[in-house]
Amino acid sequence: MFRTLIDAFKQKDLRNKILLTLFILLVYRIGCWIPVPGIEPAAFDTSFSGESATFLGLLSSITGGALSNGALLALGVIPYISASIIMQLLTIAIPSLERLSKSGDEGRKKIGKITRWAALILSTAQAIAIVIAFSTNGAINTGALGPLIEANVPWLVAAIVAAVLIAGGMFTLWLGEKITDLKIGNGVSLLIFVGILASAGQAILQSIQAAVADIDKIWSLIIFLGTVILIFGLIVFIDLAERRIPVQYAKQIKGRKMYGGQNTHIPIKVNSSGVLPLIFATALVAFPQLLMSIFWPTSPAFEWYSTNMGMGSWPFFVVTAILIFFFTYFYSQIAFNPEDVSRSLQQNGGFVQGYRAGKPTADYLKKISSRITFFGATYLAFIFIIPSLAFKSIQDFTTIGGSAGAAGLVTAFSVTGLLIVVSVALEFDKQLNAQMMMKNYRGFLK
Questions:
Q1: Spatial separation of the C-alpha atoms in residues 32 and 69, rounded to whole Å
Q2: % the chain with pLDDT above 70
Q3: How far is CA 16 from the centre of its chain?
Q4: How many helices (H) and strands (E) does the chain have?
């Protein structure tokens, strides 16, 4: 990847695109530190400490700490991600949206517009929920806006805070789209990538400072970072793994020319669904605990759920693993449809060696896809449970930078975050290589 960056910087147009992307990312990071007028950052940050806020900590790490800082871009790309996932599900459930998704660029533009409106609605709902949830612990400071607003109209302060959060969420989406327009990577993914790296960098810096102050803690830091490197290697290995099904195209004579006759393959990735099943499963199990911790923190239901289904408990891991399998199989049906692939092969004169075109080929592809999906689901469940237990044990039995430092490392280097970082980095490398290859082709044609 570093070699790809060096080669890209040698080309003026790619260098300008990379520098402009870095500038947009810098603007995003600045917006992650400027607090919203009307929010008390210290009181806001206390809501993200403790066992019940583990899921909130994960969301904050995705935004690079902007959520826990109560910053202008606190919502980040979370509303847009939620809207995109909802639209993917609705595309399957609603026939009109499915037809729209298959109608080319014009249909995708319309779906993108609907997704942005859905993101605005979700941004509004999340901003209002944040204001309502955190106004009880002093996080919404009615005197923070000075003489502009009197203390006897707190609803106006809350309205201003909500409006700023909504505007910040949509501004973040706009920044992501500007990066996407440069065609060197997905803008939303790069914003998440930078946010996770920023959270990880802060956690590592705090841990190094603690290790310098107490030399005995350095071994805990080394063990933790060694575990992270091993998990990184496993994620990269599986992310690049794929099953290649050989395909042969029959020779066809059209006029005076002969077409076909070449051999190729159908690549089926082991982890074709990426990190979405893990995010969906974790959010579905953790959301009730998060909701009760905000609105009913003293209720018996919250106490029972935190004890029996809280993040880190054995029932939590078991239920999450089952949901990971479910969502992995669900998304594999979206990413790879054996009937469509078989039909496309038959129409273009292609066939899988040893199988007749049509239904036999579709059945074979379905069997292969089902087996690979099972392995991919097992991998996601393994990569979620085992490293999470390892990180938790390191947090329990070590004192890396104190309990807050250990929790910061575990949150910043969550398995979900590691999967996102690896997938975004590999996709960015592919995009740069594709841009350089296109430039070489243009030079050859000229």
A1: 8
A2: 77
A3: 27
A4: 18, 5
Query: Per-residue b/e over 35-72, b at no fewer than 16 CB within 10 Å?
Result: bbbbbbbeebbbbbeeebbbbbbbbbbbbbbbbbbbbb
Phi first, then psi, for residue 299 (nearest 5°) are -80, 150
What global pTM score does this model have?
0.76
Going by pLDDT thresholds of 50, 70 and 90, the confidence category of residue 444 is very low
pLDDT above 50 (res 163): yes
Contact of 30 with 66, CB cutoff 8 Å: no
Going by C-alpha positions, the residue among 51, 25, 21, 52 that lies closest to residue 289 is: 52
What SS3 class is residue 259? Answer: strand
Q: What are the pLDDT digits (tens) for 339-378?
A: 888 888 877 777 787 788 788 888 888 888 888 889 888 8
Please give the residue that has the higher pLDDT: either 6 or 399. Answer: 6
Q: Is the Cα torsion angle 171, 176, 177, 178 positive or negative in sign?
A: positive
Alpha helices in 94-217 (DSSP H): 95-101, 105-134, 154-181, 187-213
In sign, the C-alpha dihedral spanning 174, 180, 185, 188 is positive
Q: Tokens 């106490």, residue?
A: 303
Does the pLDDT at position 275 exceed 80?
no
**If 0-12 CB within 10 Å is exposed, 13-18 middle and 19+ buried, where does residue 22 land?**
exposed
Identify the pLDDT of residue 245: 85
What pLDDT digit, counting tens, does each position of 408-421 carry? 555 556 677 777 78
Which tokens in the block code for residue 219? 């071994």
Rounded-to-integer distance, Cα 309 and Cα 329, Å: 24
Both tokens of residue 282? 């974790």
Q: Phi/psi at 73 (nearest 5 deg)?
A: -100, 40
3-state secondary structure of 242: strand
How far is the C-alpha of 158 from the C-alpha of 142, rounded, in Å? 8
Q: In the β-sheet with 350-352, what is the strand arrangement from edge to edge?
A: 263-269, 242-249, 350-352
Quote the CA–CA distance of 295 and 301 in Å, as a whole number. 12
Instruction: Answer for the pair 52, 310: CB distance below 8 angstroms, yes or no.
Output: yes
| pLDDT over 90 percentage in the chain | 4
- What tokens appear for 410 in the block? 């575990």
d(CA 201, CA 253): 61
Q: How confident is the model at residue 406 (pLDDT cuts 50, 70, 90)?
A: very low
- Residue 263 DSSP one-character state: E
